[in-house]
Write the structure tokens for this entry.
Amino acid sequence: MSKQIINFTIIGFTIITLLIISGISLSFLDLSHNTTNIEASVSFTPPIEPVRNRIEINIPSRKLFLIHGDLIIKEYEVGVGKSKEFMTPLGEFKVQVKDSKPGWESPSGNKKIAPGAANPLGTRWIGFYKSKNNLVYGVHGTNEPNSVGKFVSHGCIRMKIADAEELFDQVEIGTPIKIRYDRIEVKRKHNNLALTIYPDPYGLKALDPVSVYKQIRAEYPTATIYKAKIQEVLNKKAISNLTLNTGFFES
């Protein structure tokens, strides 16, 4: 609740009619017969904003998370931009367009496909960004379900048809979308600590044992961490969702 002081003057009135409005209380001071200065203290409770769903996407893991408050409602596998040249944009965005019957146009603009089973966008389009070069990015279905879970697109987020339709009904215009680039995932599994290292498709985040150790230690300060295991993971030349136990918790 907050308060605001309002000062105003009434001239030539000795009788004041006070209308009581729900949620607002007024207190009056310093009345005289002719010119009256009134100080009103107004108390009100601002409306509570409803909790909205939001989306987070991690490029290296190729995962999309539908989140409500602090709760992950569902996790989806997605296809993302295939290289640094065709990056999925990183940062914070909002849903700008929703289309239940999207048409498709090739990046060169020389080919168009009407809505339907052969459409590369599937049956749903959730647009969230338009670049300075007029490139449009969105979350959408695909007529190539085997491409989901890979670095394969020109920058858009691909989902399986059923997943895109389900997500479409859970978001609205203005729904926040955060796209991040986290290569490290650490989870506690019973008394063990599992470290997953994801690929670096855009060459944006090289990893070293010290930085990885510090991140694990920050998240799990009481765990015993095997530094040699971290080095073993990083020594792998081809990293693709590699998970290894790198520590444990005392029982």
Q: What stands out?
A: Residues 55 and 66 are 5 Å apart (CA to CA). Residues 2-44 form one domain.
